[in-house]
Here is the input.
Amino acid sequence: MVAELNFNNPTVVALARYGALVVGKMLFLLLLTSFFRVTRKVFSCPEDARSSYLGNAKTEDQVKKMLIKDDMIERVRRCVLNDMENIIPFLLLAPLYILTGPADSTALLLFQIFVGSRFVHTITYLFGMQPFRALAFTAGLCVNFYFVFHIFRNSHF
Here is the structure.
């Protein structure tokens, strides 16, 4: 059975909603990175440190002081990178998974597990909470691997 990818399909609607949630979360983290950079006066580029509306550094010594690494900024940046490594495959695999015609309830459960795992992963990453971060990462990764397995098992190439 091949499902259609349109908004008449409740699984597609669910994917759109859950996909928007995880992308929105990732965008929030991008804003959080910017917020920390501006409020802590820690920048990745000299031109940002010199900018009158960001760092407002007047001397090269001031610029150098603003180009240091900040642990929290780096933690948020790594969280965003981890999101990109997991959310992008989810958004690519989930529509292919839907095309194989899974049960709506199964697809919905998998979407919920993935999205929940990414939110838990973000919280545990930002606050340095192991082993919960690893467990959340693994849950999301298992959903993506399940998609791959299901796509190969149920598609007719």
